[in-house]
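Wed. Picked up where I left off yesterday with DUF222 domain-containing protein. The coffee machine is broken again, so keeping this brief.
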Amino acid sequence: MAAVPDGDVPALPTVEALPDRLGAAHPAIALPAQLALATERAAWLGARLAEQIAAEGVAGVVGESRALSADGEPVTLGEFARVLWEAEARERANVATLAERVARLGLDSRDAQQDSARWTASALRTFVAELGLSDRDEPTWRAAKRAAIVARRAMGHEDADPDVHAGPRLSLRERATLLREAAERAERAADELDGLPQRPA
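Structure written out below (tokens, as returned):
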């Protein structure tokens, strides 16, 4: 009997999908992420095993059943169930090992989330200041908040919708206004440094 195909195997995002993901190899991020992935895979394998046993019975898991193929050759039945049984057992053992390592190192995914939030906020503040954008403009902080939510989602620490929690993306008009005002402030500051007469505000 054929394997029961159902469900997508849980997988971590590829590096290509998240080129800006920083610090992913740090144990405070990598170990909890691997633990979550192993837990999802074990559950996925368990569900596939249940489906296979429902389709074939327990012949492959308990004992061994043989039958003759159309060519008269003996074949073993229940191999899909046996393979799923072993794979699920290995993945559950992996979950236990990773959970023990996380506990032994005193890691908590919340620590990684808090570090990530602090780093993201600091990076965004610096970025806004480097561009000369005003930190008092609502559109600037709406864009920064959206960027923070998207970055935290990419690291697996956030599942909020940026449109709901930060507001809509900046319109083209809002972007143009912010950048024009930043350019004008930069021109005035440059003129001041050069000792030129001030441009009108």
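Quick read: The chain has two domains: 27-104, 109-194.
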